[in-house]
Amino acid sequence: MDDSTENTTFADLALRPELVEALSSLGYEEPTPIQRESIPPLIAGQDLLGQAATGTGKTAAFALPMLQHLEIDNRSKNPTGLILVPTRELAMQVSEAVHKYGRALGARVLPIYGGQPIGRQLQALSRGVDVVVATPGRAVDHIKRGTIPLKNIAMVVLDEADEMLDMGFAEDLDAILGALPTERQTILFSATMPKRIESLARRHLSNPTTIRIEAPVVAKGDVPKVRQLAFMVPRSHKPAALGRILDVEAPAAAIVFCRTRVEVDQLTETLNGRGYRAEALHGGMNQEGRDRVMARVRSGNADLLIATDVAARGLDIDLLTHVVNYDVPSAPESYVHRIGRVGRAGREGVAITLAEPREHRLLENIQRVTGDKIAIEKVPTISDLRNRRMELTLGTLRETLLDDDLDRYRTIVESLTDEFDLFEVALAAVKLTHEATAGAEDEVEIPEVEVRRAKDRKNDRGDRGDRGDRDKKGKKNKDRSIGVDSTRLYFPIGRSAQVRPGDLVGAITGETGLAGKQIGSIEIADKFSLVEVPEQSADDIIRAMKKTTIKGRKVVPRRERFQRFER
Ligand code: AMP
């Protein structure tokens, strides 16, 4: 990313004040790269051929210029903007987006797709519409009936053009574009740029500005060595999913990146409700407020910092173990930039990304650009969480048995054993420990999501009224786990003994001859640490550690009992 453009604001893009205001109230802090590059040429009236996947902010990239010239008074009943999309879901999503960006302008937006009674669409069209968002088949029906007046269309957008071609809409697109006024602006966005898209663009775009993702833009050495995981989660389940992932990962200190201020505030509240000490940081806060938050984070009085990119820019936080992308970042460079906050100077770290199913392409782009694999894992289930909580309780009790002076409780146990069986007494004590250390149970199951690709979606044509989620044949993502031949060792020593990753790596490499780079992620909790090692070396390490000490203590590891997720 070019630093000189990094601080571009929406106002710099010469958007009208009503739009700048709408974006600010949605909590958008700055344009995404695709918006920065597309909006100026589009406002200047040029055609545009853009390579961008869902999640890059491409909807606003074309919707804002479309709304830029919308007249407030004396508006005709005829639409001036037409957006063509492959599916009915997308038609609804895009029209909602255009509606929210254009609310202050009173923009009239109508989604048109198959499966919905045509009568309702006709009524709305006759009342007057500014922007029509349509699937191609249904648009052709209307054009044939003469029910969409096209003569005022000044801008047409082909959104997800590759998907539209994959779904067999090529002829419909040619028919629609052929029926539009020749004096118009044409925009084509596609996640991929196969020859067929280039040929479509040659036929219908005139002298377009081209925006493409150049790959790879990141040198291999620039991508920090961190464990990279992603979870596919439907939007509505994201807060709960993040809570669970954090419960299982147990980060010592993490930064969670959100796209908007609004999201930052909501998530901070949710996570505080879950017992985390989360602090919000965004561009809407004054300097004093930000300093206060950073002081709490640096002194260890907060364990999660929830921030936008803008607010976190330039922050250097030493103790971070985890970076969480609550949304997939809108550009691969931003992903690399974010995850560079952990894994620096040889430290180990974890990068976690929550992606909505429709953002899978964005994840693929990131992997292509960084050359690194992001493992898709399953969101912990309720039973995973229970296991994890049991594991925590077990760890806590084990440490207490090993470390603490328990003699002063002897009289309690003795007086109870007069009345109860010793085992029963132990069970009651474990129950109390469990309730005190493990926190509340989470009841709602989060559905498992399958990643579906374009070719699996051919039957989803919006014109037939098919629902995008009807076809359950989508392929399972094959590779769900990190390092299949690695395992994690549980070391009964942690932060409370001032252990640092280097101590663990030093002890292991010193005693076994294993190279530092063969050791994977390291997580340090209060009383224990988890170290990822090659499966075939695990037993040797356990044996070797019996002969040495860490921080002056004998620390014999064992295999982690709770395997993170089913492999
Ligand atoms: P899209 O790629 O158009 O589907 O957008 C993906 C998501 O990013 C949507 O939820 C938008 O609301 C959000 N979004 C788009 N532009 C921005 C921005 N500049 N800042 C924050 N969020 C954005």
Topology:
Blueprint: H1 3-6, H2 17-25, H3 33-43, E1 48-51, H4 58-68, E2 81-84, H5 88-101, E3 109-112, H6 118-127, E4 131-134, H7 136-145, E5 155-158, H8 161-166, H9 170-179, E6 185-190, H10 195-204, E7 209-211, E8 227-232, H11 238-249, E9 254-258, H12 261-273, E10 278-281, H13 287-298, E11 304-308, H14 309-312, E12 322-325, H15 332-339, E13 350-355, H16 360-370, E14 375-377, H17 382-403, H18 410-419, H19 422-438, E15 486-491, H20 501-512, E16 522-524, E17 529-534, H21 538-545, E18 549-550, E19 553-554, E20 558-559
Helix pairs in contact: 3-4, 4-5, 7-9, 15-16, 17-19, 20-21
The protein binds adenosine monophosphate.
Q: Can you give me a brief rundown of this structure?
A:
This protein is α/β, with parallel strands linked by helices and 567 residues long.
What is the CATH domain class of the largest domain?
Answer: Alpha Beta
Instruction: Please state the structural category.
Output: alpha/beta
User: For the largest beta sheet, what order do the strands appear in spatially?
Assistant: 3-4-2-5-6-1-7
What is Rg? 28 Å
Hey, roughly how much beta strand do the residues contain?
Answer: 5-15%
